[in-house]
Amino acid sequence: MTSSTQSDDAVMNAFAPFQAATISDAMFSLGLRDSALDPSVRLLAGRQLLGRARTVGRTPLTGNAGQAEMAGDYGFAIQQVIDGCKSGSVIVIATQGIASHANWGGNMAHRASHLGAVGLVTDGALRDADEMEGYGLTVFAQGTSVRAGQHRFATTVRNEPVICAGAYVRPDDIILGDRDGVIVIPPEHANDIARKAAELVGIEKEMQAFMDGGASLYDAVMKYKVR
Questions:
Q1: pLDDT tens digits for 55-114?
Q2: Which end of the chain has fewer CB within 10 Å, C or N?
Q3: Considering only the top CATH level, what class is 33-185?
């Protein structure tokens, strides 16, 4: 194992104990920009997601332009992004919030899982939803659709920054998701965010112990939440 892999493992391990809501609070406390995905993207398979982003951007076809006109070299970009996955990868597919056609399915999941990918996040739709947990993938999406996306979308972004459900996502950003939603963690602030999250968890435990001792919620909030 290389030193860079060890470093990445340490970063992932630092975030593993935390809920997405705690990370959101930590980023707010640090004055960082809100990077939570819109709640329209919801958990459809699995329980918790933590990994590094690999990104795809897709654009609806128009009456006078298809894949060749929009980005001729990107006809197999989704396959290339998936084939480049490694352990801990999270595929992020941005569709401008259009969920009428699926942009993810069983064959993609099959390949991604063999390469060590841990999940998918999309502001669009997927199909073959019942297969996802069998591949060990945690999936967040706006919904499902039986319609195939290749007849509706062109791929225009391949592992470059995308906007997914209102959040800016770059390749290698840390993606953390659970039943509360998905948040994007900028790696350059990861250490500060993890430290602040641990501090907030500690405060919450003290606050709950204070209430367990008979204090009111009002008193607990005044003691621990008001600064």
A1: 999 999 999 999 999 999 999 999 999 999 999 999 999 999 999 999 999 999 999 999
A2: C
A3: alpha beta
Name the token pair of 6: 């060890």
pTM, entire model: 0.92
List, for residues 151-187, the tens digit of each pLDDT value: 899 999 999 999 999 999 999 999 999 999 999 999 9
Q: Are 137 and 46 in contact (CB under 8 A)?
A: yes
Listed in sequence order, the residues at least 6 apart from 37 whose beta carbon sits closer than 8 Å to its beta carbon are 121, 123, 140, 164, 165, 166, 167, 181, 182, 183, 184
Give the whole-angstrom CA distance, residue 43 versus residue 225: 30
Q: How far apart are the first and last CA of the chain?
A: 44
Query: Most distant CA pair in the chain: distance in Å?
Result: 69
**Burial of residue 135 (number of CB atoms within 10 Å: 0-12, 13-18, 19+):** buried
The position carrying tokens 């009456």 is: 63
Domain residue extents for the chain: 33-185, 192-224
Parallel, antiparallel, or unpaired: how do β-strands 181-185 and 174-178 relate?
Answer: antiparallel
C-alpha neighbours within 13 Å on the C-beta side of residue 16: 8
DSSP letter for 128, please. Answer: -
